[in-house]
Amino acid sequence: MSWKTIAVLLVLALGFGGYFYYDTYWLVPAREKAESVKGRLWTVEPKDVDALTIKRQGDTVRLKRVEGGWEMLEPVKARGDRGPIEEVLTSLTTARVDREIDSNPAKLGEFGLDPASAEIRLDVKGRAEPLTLMVGAKSPTGAWVYAKEGAKPAVVTLSEVTARDAARPASDFRDKTIIAFDKKAVTGLDVEVQGDRFSVAADESGGWQITKPSVYRADRDMISDLLDKLESAKVKEFVADGAPLAQYGLDKPARVTVWTGKDKDRSSKGLLFGRTEPAKQGIYVMRDSDTSVMLAPEEVWKAVPKTVAALRDKVVVAYAYDKANRVEVTSARGSVTLEKDGSGWKITAPEALKADSGAVSNLLWKIRDLRATGFVAEGPGEVSRYLAKPDVTVRIWEEGAKEPKTLLVRPFTEKPGGTPTAVAAVQGQGPVMLVDAKAVEDLSRTAADLRDRSIFPAFDLPDVKRVRLTAGGKPMVVDRTGDNEWKVAEPAKGPAKEARVSNLLMTLKTLRWKEIVSPKGDDAARYGLDRPELEVSIGKAGDAEVGTLLVGKREGDLSYVRLKSAPAIYAVEDKLIGDLRTAPTEIPG
Fold first, then answer.
1. Predicted confidence (pLDDT) at residue 33 exceeds the cutoff of 60
2. Among 337, 308, 312, which residue's Cα sits nearest to residue 324?
3. CA-CA-CA-CA torsion for 198, 201, 206, 209, nearest 10 degrees?
4. Structure confidence at residue 14 as a pLDDT band (50, 70, 90)
5. Of the candidates 130, 180, 181, 182, the residue with the CA atom closest to the CA atom of residue 151
6. What are the CA-CA distances from residue 526 to residues 266, 293, 554 (Å)?
7. Cis upstream peptide for 350 (omega within 30°)
8. What are phi and psi of 471, to 5 degrees?
9. Are 120 and 88 spatial neighbours (Cβ–Cβ below 8 Å)?
10. pTM here?
11. Where are the alpha helices (DSSP H) in 132-198?
């Protein structure tokens, strides 16, 4: 191929490429834009509108775009609600003319345009004159509305959405945020309720401290809930502007002041609370920099702590649940020591035993969730006065800590309000707190309460491939044939009810003893285990046996069982092994 041919082909390729680029990135967007504005009343974009005015027979709504949003200038001066305003602007600027009804009507009143139900004005950036629209009556079908644009004589029809936009109440365009702030920037709160004043401040650890009238730990969850509700609350109703405050209980209001920032950047916003309106599930409020009375959700007021005691941190002993690696419990029932063992727990005293991880977790959660219902005394020195002889002592060691946190609990001699209660404190710390009287019983755990009570060896359900049952000397074998499919293999092949097999396996997996009636298996005949009524075995792949459970006789609400591989005889609640007793007759079929 000659260089001339190559040159011609190169020129053609560049030409086609240039045309493709021009068509794709210039002509196509231009055509799409032209198509999108075809038939529109106005060819402006919502972002170019600087002001919106809707004048109606009863009122006028005047809105102005400001940095970061919108401001309402009429009927009251207030922050605008960006969402509804932008929604109406988009609707107006993209409104399309359906058809021209009359090019020069003699009587505008025939179309509801003299006077008009609403007059809309858009002030657009870069335009000397505003865009105006008169909105009249709806057409007979109700799907369209008569309208007249600016000085043009013609009456046209637009979608009835335009009429709805023009008729929206002023409150729709008004910002409904009760009090505007960024929760992450909050550094303090002041609360004043019925003459009581108290303040809280954020600390470096991310917690909160009550700083006035005295220094206490504050309830982090309560403050977080209050800030969440204040930040997210929306006005239910704009009640009045400049109304008599006493009418709404705002002449002697409660007050919450939110402080944000630090040092020279510190600023505050306050919210005043008046009386509640139960019928509307609200409370009358007013911003401290405003004269407008608003109805706020009642839940905001419910989140406001009314006293210092209500705001105090009620956690009795704070510790990291996932960092606890040793626990000692001493009570009138005895002592037990627990140590972390991998992902589980073990008992190391009074004897070495496997612990029931669920029971230990339950104990740890009860300790972590223990909450004060009141405060008896402050300071470390008061602990020995009230808890010199505790009924329960719990020591918790955490990873990396040299000393444990020691919780002391005992019943309280007094009964506040006639209700039995207990006192609790962390040794060497204050305060002394009132807690539920049930805490003494809940925390008085022993090795017998916390030891592992499972009977059958641990297994995972998907690993089981075979189940063998023998009842009355008649064996039955069930084999797994799929993920959730089982078949009877002996004495005769046939189908098996998968749900019944699953129930049997879950019964074995979760079975717990109530009492060890014979640790060494003495007097098996006494418990019907010399000739068991039922024998249940399960195996894994390759016929590797997981275990075999022997079921003896029943006495009242108890049954006796043991493992074939171990001597100990256990009493279990008979209702727990109902699925085992009925399995030989219910699995086939």
1. no
2. 337
3. -50
4. low
5. 130
6. 80, 81, 11
7. yes
8. -135, 125
9. no
10. 0.70
11. 160-167
